[in-house]
Sequence to fold (420 residues):
Amino acid sequence: MRYKIPRGTYDILPQQSYKWQKLFADFRKLAAAYGYAEISTPMFEQAGLFERSSGESSDVVKKEMYRFTDQKGRVFALRPEGTAPVARAYVENRMDIGAAVKKLYYIGPMFRYDRPQAGRYRQFQQYGIELIGSDNPFYDAEVISILWFFLSGLGLKNLRLEINSVGCPNCSQAYDKALQEYFRPHFSDLCPDCQVRIEQNPRRLLDCKVPSCKEIASGAPVQLDYLDEDCRIQFAAVQKHLELMEIPFTINPRIVRGLDYYTHTAFEVVGGSLGAQNSLAGGGRYNGLLEQIGGKSTPAIGFAGGFERLLLALEEEGISLGDVPAPDAFAILIGEAARDAFTPYLNALRLKGIFVEFDPDKSSFKAQLKAADNRQARFALIFGEDELAANSVTLRDLQSGEQKNYSLENLDLLAEAIRG
RNA sequence: GUGGGUGUAGUUCAAUGGCAGAGCACCGGAUUGUGGUUCCGGGCGUUGGGGGUUCGAGUCCCCUCACCCACCCCA
Fold:
């Protein structure tokens, strides 16, 4: 019986892992510069947390959650998204005490039982930001800007930021009503899904891909026209701040985030040529969420992005994240006596932070030199009978072919030469 | 969950129902202390898995698994 990796998952092999490390590091660095600190929550939570926060009718809860029961019958779920756990941690750890605003970021795997496709996996890595404790539109723009600068900073050109406001519960109620009034006369022309949506979640009608529905929806009232005074002011302020930051955006009134907890600002960054799964990241304001899960009413905003799609987009645009690091030097040790004698120096160099490779499985000079070339080492460190007798080592530059002897008395000189 | 496509060596791909092959990569060697080029040598791989038809299946049929594309949805 050979075991196989679960569907929709993947191994990150050594040839790839440095790319992930690079992306993680870039994101952490940027987040830190904006004053955000990392938070890490469990990969599973009480299933109810997600059911309540995302909404019972959301696809995530209806069909995509990995639910399981533990030995005592408690019902848990592998986290399908990162915001609800962070909100839970905020409430549970009384993070509302002290500084008014908490700036948090996370990196970690999420899980959704969905049919895999390019850019869509059952376990996928997300990066995300959550800012809890303020509804100042300045922060909406700040959070969006972190996402924007992260992605554009990697060199991506083919990016589009789309923003919208879904308003507060007040204006979305008015809007839903307007939508229902608009669509009801067209009822018989709508697809079966939309006929249900019209009562349950009229805003989803705007998202329908069925051509006939699309055509009807094209004339539907626009949410932005139904914003109340406060929401309008808020949305205008977000735009102003984005303009001050010189971040290009377009207003897309059709952005309807999939999870129920969003209010006011909603946004999405889409990548150019990714095929159907082209959403690189999405987020928005969720002023109602914390209260919904048992905390005080607290405004918050955040986003989440997927690393897999980011990697796809980078590849698509031909952007390299660098190469697997090559050894600084490759030790070529000829004969057992030389090999034994050089072992302490091998360690000493490594402890100085120099990347020195050695292959004990190869014995002949030629094979070892070939290996050094193969690994693209900059230098070969040759140590055989002659060097053993002279208590020195031969440093060979593998590009120029130049060779020079270095005494083993003073390893610093050698180290310096290798470092260049 | 629905529809379609594809699965052969590490990889990219061949093989009218008739002996499973090639390029690249990889390993070894070309008188034993000088690599990259060149030359020589090295491949029985559960043809994704299981069943069926057939004298004979990588090839035809069924099931299954995985990936890809689209839908749904989203990261």
Chain A has a mean pLDDT of 89. Residues 14-168+228-316 of chain A form a domain with the BirA Bifunctional Protein; domain 2 fold (CATH 3.30.930.10). Chain A has two domains: 14-168+228-316, 329-419.
